[in-house]
Write a structure and sequence with these properties.
Its EC number is 1.14.99.56. Residues 21-225 form the Auxiliary Activity family 9 catalytic domain. Its main location: secreted. The chain has helices at 3-12, 55-58, 140-146; strands at 23-29, 32-33, 70-73, 77-83, 104-111, 125-130, 132-133, 138-139, 150-154, 162-172, 183-194. It is mainly β. The protein has a single domain, classed as Coagulation Factor XIII, Chain A, domain 1 (Distorted Sandwich), CATH 2.70.50.70. A five-stranded mixed sheet has the order 3-11-10-5-6. A four-stranded antiparallel sheet has the order 2-1-4-9. It has a two-stranded antiparallel sheet with strand order 7-8. A hairpin with a 2-residue loop joins strand 1 (23-29) and strand 2 (32-33). The protein is globular. It binds 2-acetamido-2-deoxy-beta-D-glucopyranose (2 copies) and copper (II) ion (CU). One 2-acetamido-2-deoxy-beta-D-glucopyranose binds at residues 71-73, 194.
Length: 242
C-alpha cells in the first residue's frame, strides 16, 4: 500500500474504522488481563506521521490523563496489546494489518501523577524493542500478529517505586521511503509501581527522540539493498536495570 492509497482509504471510510491500521488498547500485568483499565484510549486508529508533533507522545488527545491506573511490581512481566478495531481481540484478525511492517517498542517515563502527566515533562527510557530479524525476515509487527496482538516485556526491577507512563509504539514502514511516509501508532498506559529499586535510567524526550530523516523512519524496506533495519530512538536501557 502506498501512502496515497492509505489517505484515500481514510477519506472514504470513517476514520475510526480504517482497515489495517491499529491501536494499542489493552494491558496485561504479570499475566493478568487489565483490559483497557489504564490506557489513554486513542480517538482513532489513524497513524501519526509527523515525528516532531506532540501527538508523538501519547497519540492524539493523549496528553490528557484518564482515571484508571494499573498496579504492578518491578520485575514483573507486562504485555501491551494492539488490534485494528476497538475491542476486537479475535486472534484470527491480524493485530495490525497487511503490509504494515515495522518495529515495536516500549518506553517508560517516571512521573509525579500518572493520571495527570502530559508526557512531555519527563524523559522516556526504552525497555523493549523488536525491529527486524533479517535471518527469518520477521518484523516486530509480524510478532504482534503471531501473538494475538501482544508484545510482552519485563518491567525493570531496579527502577524506583511510584507512578509511570508506559508508551507502546509500532511503526509501519511500507510507505516510509517517502518523507513523512512512516506511520506511527502509539498509546500510553498509566502505571503505579511497587519497587524496592532506586535507579532511574536516563532517557529522551518526545517529541524530539526521532527525526524525520532517521534511518529507521525514512527507509525503503522494499529496496534491493535493504538488508538490516536500524530501530529509531535510544538503545534499550542497560541490562543491569533489569
Ligand atoms: C503495592 O504495595 C501496596 C502497599 O504495600 C499494596 O497495598 C499493593 O497491593 C501493592 N500492589 C501490588 C501490585 O503488588
Ligand atoms: C524469527 O526470529 C525471532 C527471533 O529473532 C523469533 O522470535 C520468531 O519466532 C521467528 N519467527 C519465525 C516466523 O520463525
Ligand atoms: Cu496504512
Amino acid at each position: 500500500m502506498k501512502k496515497a492509497s492509505c489517505f484515500s482509504l481514510a477519506l472514504l471510510s470513517s476514520v475510526a474504522s480504517v482497515a489495517a491500521h491499529a491501536t494499542f488498547q489493552k494491558l496485561w500485568v504479570n499475566g493478568v488481563d487489565d483490559d483497557q483499565k489504564c490506557v489513554r484510549v486513542v480517538p482513532s486508529n489513524s497513524p501519526v506521521t509527523d515525528v516532531t508533533s506532540t501527538d508523538m507522545v501519547c497519540n492524539v488527545g493523549g496528553s490528557k490523563g484518564v482515571a484508571g491506573v494499573c498496579e504492578a511490581t518491578a520485575g514483573q512481566s507486562m504485555a501491551v496489546e494492539m488490534h485494528q478495531q476497538p475491542h476486537d481481540r479475535s486472534c484470527s484478525t491480524e493485530a495490525i494489518g497487511g503490509n504494515h511492517f515495522g518495529p515495536v517498542m516500549v518506553y517508560m517515563s517516571k512521573v509525579d501523577d500518572t493520571t495527570k502527566a502530559d508526557g512531555t515533562s519527563a524523559p522516556w527510557f526504552k525497555v523493549s524493542e523488536f525491529g527486524y530479524d533479517a535471518d527469518n525476515k520477521t518484523w516486530g509487527t509480524d510478532m504482534l500478529n503471531q501473538n494475538c496482538g501482544k508484545h510482552t516485556f519485563i518491567v525493570p526491577s531496579k527502577i524506583p517505586p511510584g507512578d509511570y507512563l508506559v508508551r507502546a509504539e509500532a511503526i509501519a514502514l511500507h510507505a516510509a521511503s517517502q518523507p513523512n511516509g512512516a506511520q506511527l501508532y502509539m498509546s500510553c498506559y498509566q502505571i503505579r509501581l511497587n519497587s524496592s529499586g532506586d535507579q532511574l535510567p536516563a532517557g529522551v524526550k518526545f517529541p524530539g527522540a526521532y527525526k524525520p530523516t532517521d534511518p529507521g523512519i525514512q527507509v525503503d524496506i522494499y529496496g534491493s539493498n535493504f538488508k538490516s533495519y536500524t530501530i529509531p530512538g535510544p538503545a534499550i536501557i542497560d541490562q543491569s536495570f533489569f
